[in-house]
Amino acid sequence: MNSEEFKLLSKRMNVLKRRFITAKVKKNPTTFYSQDFMKSFRILFHSEIEYYFESIAIKKVEKSLSLWLHDQTINATLLGIMAFSRNFLPNVPRKLSEISNRNDLNFRIHSTVKWYKDLIEKSNNGIKENNIIPIIVPLGIDYTKINQELLSALTTYGSKRGELAHVSYAKVINIMDPSDEIQATELIVTEIKILDELLNCL
Fold it and tell me: Other CB atoms closer than 10 Å to residue 73's CB: what's the count?
């Protein structure tokens, strides 16, 4: 079963394809008009992918925190972010009198959850493998089931988006092909669908 976040990603892909990879673009793909439309498609869909990963990760970590606050349940996600955290926490108290709500277990859990959310909301800036792995592995997913083909496709797409985001069309050397754009996005969504089923079980 897939998440609402994935369903939104899939829907947005289809909306963007209809809006930007039009019959006119397919008929005359090398014109300035068509290249601008495909450039817009690539940049916007890149944003949708990034939003998918960030939003589902935030949802999972907030769910894990809620379970802890409700009945002290520790699930794989909460355990994962605690284990992978690079958050700098207070030293372990040496006396009972040193324990307070500034260094106890609840504080450490809330602090680590905040660290993870800040990692996503303030530090993440892309969809390449080195952007995605730090987001999804701490969630407690079985990393052996992550498809390298997906990570490679995301890295390639992220690089191609980067080539376009800061240059004029006049400087673009590689002419975009509508069939290639559609094929690349559909491959990514197909692979994310499989990963999403794993994430949605957490």
Answer: 11
How far is Cα 108 from Cα 89, in angstroms, rounded to an integer? Answer: 7
Q: How far apart are the first and last CA of the chain?
A: 12
Q: What is the CA radius of gyration of the chain?
A: 21
Q: Which of 81, 79, 100, 83 is nearest to 91 (CA)?
A: 100
Q: What does the pLDDT read at residue 172?
A: 57
What is the domain extent for residue 52? 4-200
Number of helical (H) and strand (E) elements in the chain, helices listed first? 8, 0
Contact between residue 138 and residue 120 where contact means Cβ atoms under 8 Å apart: no
Mean pLDDT taken over the chain: 93
pTM: 0.92
**Which one, of 112, 116, 3, lies nearest residue 58 by Cα?**
116
Instruction: Give the number of domains in the chain.
Output: 1
Question: Cα–Cα distances in Å, from 21 out to 28, 41, 99, 120, 191?
Answer: 11, 8, 60, 31, 22
